[in-house]
Each structure stands twice: as structure tokens, then as C-alpha cells.
């Protein structure tokens, strides 16, 4: 299964309830989220009105999805690589099925790095 990287922008400091995970303070800025699935799942992230199901859905009530990148690395492998480049954010965010610390990171990787990993910008 392919994995993807979603780049988002949170325009202002926000306190957001992330489902059963809890309520967290998020500083304004850019974030990187790692997920797995098809292009239809990625497209779902760009829809504003939807049923809240995944942790990312709660964050996307305030954050704006900017772009997505898709590639073939296993989700948990991609997270381990990004942990060397970016600061993990909320513990347990999107990672209940992989055992990673978090699938949400503060900041974003540069395009050259994403291309080096074999990721390409998804056409939404």
C-alpha cells in the first residue's frame, strides 16, 4: 500500500479536540501528516464538510491542506525517516496502528527531499 505526506497550514494558534486522543494546543504554522491509502483518501482531506473519523479530520477543521505527496514507502518507515528531519507533534496522532510516536510533525520537508524519497506531488 502506498503512503502519502499531507502538508497543511494552521493560520492561527488553536486549541483543538482530537477525538478521543484529547485536547491539544497547536501553534500556528505548517505541519506534515503521514498517512496511507489511495488517492481518494487524500482527496477526502481537501473536503471541508465531512464526518470526523481520523485524527487528521479534527485538525483539518482549522488547518488548511496545501498539497499532498504520494510514494511507495511503508507508512511507518516514512515516519521514521521524517523523525530525523522534523519535530514530531502530538503523541499518538494517527499512529495507533503503527506504534510510531506520531504521524504529525511540525514544519514541512523540502521538495528535493521528497523527490529523493521517490515521492511525487499528487494531482488533487
List the helices and strands and how they pair.
Layout: E1 3-10, E2 14-18, E3 22-26, E4 29-36, H1 39-45, H2 55-59, E5 64-71, H3 75-82, E6 87-88, E7 104-106, H4 111-116, E8 120-121
Antiparallel strand pairs: 1-4, 1-5, 2-3, 4-7, 5-8, 6-7
Main sheet: strand order: 6-7-4-1-5-8
Number of strands: 8
How many separate helices?
A: 4
Low-confidence stretches: none
Please indicate the count of domains: 1
Helix-strand category: alpha+beta
**Helix proportion:** 10-25%
Strand % is: 25-35%
Question: What does the radius of gyration come to?
Answer: 13 Å
| Through-space gap between termini | 19 Å
Task: Summarize this entry quickly.
The chain has four helices and eight strands; from the N terminus they run ββββααβαββαβ.
If you had to describe this structure to a student in words, what would you say it looks like?
- The chain is of the alpha+beta class and 124 residues long.
- It has one domain (3-121).
- The chain is built from 4 helices and 8 strands; from the N terminus they run ββββααβαββαβ.
- The strands form 2 sheets. It has a 6-stranded antiparallel beta sheet. A two-stranded antiparallel ribbon has the order 2-3.
- It is globular.
- The relative contact order is 0.26.
